[in-house]
Specification:
SH3 type barrels; 9 strands; GMP Synthetase, Chain A, domain 3; 2 domains; alpha+beta; three-stranded mixed β-sheet
C-alpha cells in the first residue's frame, strides 16, 4: 500500500486529476466486508470543497468507464480531501512534512513494536527519521516496512488558550 510501485499503478488516474489542476495526494483500493472502495485523496492550494470532489469524481468515472481493466469487479469511488490527519503515501510525502507529528504502522514488528508516533525529523535514502514521542530517540524506519502513516492533528497553543478562555 505504501510503496511507490503500488502508487505507480494509479499513474493514469493521477494524470487525470493533475490535468484538472489538483494535487493527487494518494489513491487506495480497499476491501471492507464484501465491498471495494477506490479512495482518492486530492488537495489544492485553496483547500478542497465538495464541488472539487464532484468535478474529480466525474472525471475519474469517465476515465474508468473507458479503462475498465484498472479496477476489477464492482467498487465505490470516494473522492475527498486528505483532511487534517493527511495520509502519507510516498517517501517524498514524509519529506514534505518534517517537523510535524505522525503515526506510522509497520507490516511487521520491529524491536517489539508495530506502531510508532512522534515527530518527523526527515528522510534519508529509503528511510524515515522519526523522533519518538515516548523516548525522544530518533529512530530510522525503512520505508518498505511501512504499512501506513498519517499526520497527527495538533491544535496550536493559541487556539487552545482561546478555547479555555471562552469556556
Amino acid at each position: 500500500m505504501q510503496d511507490k510501485k503500488g502508487q505507480e499503478r494509479w499513474t493514469p488516474i493521477r494524470e487525470v486529476i493533475e490535468g484538472l489542476g489538483y494535487e493527487c495526494v494518494g489513491i487506495l483500493l480497499v476491501s471492507e466486508g464484501r465491498s471495494q472502495y477506490l479512495r482518492v485523496y486530492i488537495d489544492s492550494l485553496g483547500g478542497i470543497v465538495v464541488k472539487d470532489c464532484e468535478t474529480v469524481s466525474r472525471a475519474i468515472s469517465r476515465f474508468l468507464d473507458e479503462h475498465d481493466d484498472m479496477v476489477q469487479g464492482a467498487f465505490y469511488l470516494e473522492v475527498s480531501s486528505p483532511g487534517l490527519e493527511r495520509p502519507l503515501f510516498l517517501l517524498e510525502d514524509y519529506g514534505k512534512f518534517v517537523g510535524r507529528g505522525v503515526k506510522i504502522k509497520l507490516h511487521e514488528t520491529v524491536k517489539g513494536q508495530k506502531k510508532f508516533s512522534g515527530v518527523l525529523e526527515g528522510v534519508a535514502e529509503d528511510s524515515i527519521l522519526l523522533r519518538e514521542s515516548e523516548s525522544l530517540e530518533v529512530r530510522t524506519i525503512p520505508f518498505d516496512t511501512v504499512q501506513k502513516g498519517h499526520l497527527v492533528f495538533e491544535e496550536d497553543e493559541g487556539a487552545k488558550k482561546q478555547k479555555r478562555r471562552s469556556s
